[in-house]
Automatic annotation (TrEMBL):
Protein name stated in the entry: Transposase IS204/IS1001/IS1096/IS1165 DDE domain-containing protein
Start and end residues of each Transposase IS204/IS1001/IS1096/IS1165 DDE domain: 1-101
Pfam families xref list: DDE_Tnp_ISL3
Species of provenance: Chroococcidiopsis cubana SAG 39.79
Amino acid sequence: MWGGFPKVVQAVFPNAVIVIDRFHVMKVVNEELNKIRKQVGIFDRRSKFLLWKNGLDLTQEETQKLEEILHRSKRLRRAYQWKEEFRAIYEKLLTVEEGKEQIE
């Protein structure tokens, strides 16, 4: 989501409640995951899409390839786990409070 969007909405609609949807949250999470992938020196384009893909939708071959990628960096593995935890939060019917607890 564009950074200035909340300010514009608040200026025009001061009583509006701003909700950022799943797509935009996961977009930011995946972008950060991609930055870490590059920082740890993994530049294979295919690895980006394996990291972004829903872990539950990976084929056996993709899972094996992803494990090889994650084995190369503890930092990347942890970032991937966080990405999957964020995704899992959206799969469950959680309240805001339950979601916050899950993140912590």
